[in-house]
Amino acid sequence: MESMQYDRERKKLLDVNNVVRLVTQAPSTIYRKVNKDEFPKPRFKRPSYTRWRSDDIELYLQYLESEYADMKWSEYDLMITNYNRWLRFKEMKKKNPFLTVDKFNEKAETDE
């Protein structure tokens, strides 16, 4: 079971060559944009091992086409994260009308 989860997580990680193919930008451009907060930071960065999460790259491609493309990447990422949390809260609130924001946040913290 543990190895299956590990493999599933590995499939979600992209090296710089895969990222280059998806975003059609040179590696040097990607790293420069990371430093300027215009591109997602790699989730894993060690000598000879740099990986991005595929969902971060998918979100980046949406970001480029959005009306918010002039925002810093970290601001956009935080905005989307908060919006998604709000949607999850709304959905859970339908199932449990007594759910409070505090209880939702407690559950979200234990799930992470």
List keywords for this structure.
3-stranded antiparallel sheet, 3 strands, Multidrug-efflux Transporter Regulator, Chain: A, Domain 2, mainly alpha, elongated, single chain, 112 residues, 2 domains, disordered N terminus
What would your notes on this structure say?
It is a single chain. The chain is mainly α. It folds into 2 domains: 1-65, Multidrug-efflux Transporter Regulator, Chain: A, Domain 2; 72-112. The protein has 6 helices and 3 strands; from the N terminus they run αβααββααα. The protein has helices spanning 2-11, 16-23, 27-35, 54-65, 73-95, 101-111, and strands at 13-14, 44-46, 49-53. Strands 1-3-2 form a 3-stranded antiparallel β-sheet. A hairpin with a 2-residue loop joins strand 2 (44-46) and strand 3 (49-53). The longest helix is centred in the last third of the chain and has 23 residues, at 73-95. The chain is elongated, with a radius of gyration of 17 Å. The two termini are 20 Å apart. Residues 1-10 have low confidence and may be disordered.
The overall pLDDT, averaged over residues, is 86
List how many beta strands DSSP finds: 3
Q: Enumerate how many helices there are, as a single number.
A: 6
- As a percent range, the share of strand residues is 5-15%
The CATH architecture assignment of the largest domain turns out to be Orthogonal Bundle
Class by alpha and beta content: mainly alpha
Quickly describe the structure.
The chain is mainly alpha-helical. It has six helices and three strands; from the N terminus they run αβααββααα.
Q: What is the topological layout?
A:
Layout: H1 2-11, E1 13-14, H2 16-23, H3 27-35, E2 44-46, E3 49-53, H4 54-65, H5 73-95, H6 101-111
Antiparallel strand pairs: 1-3, 2-3
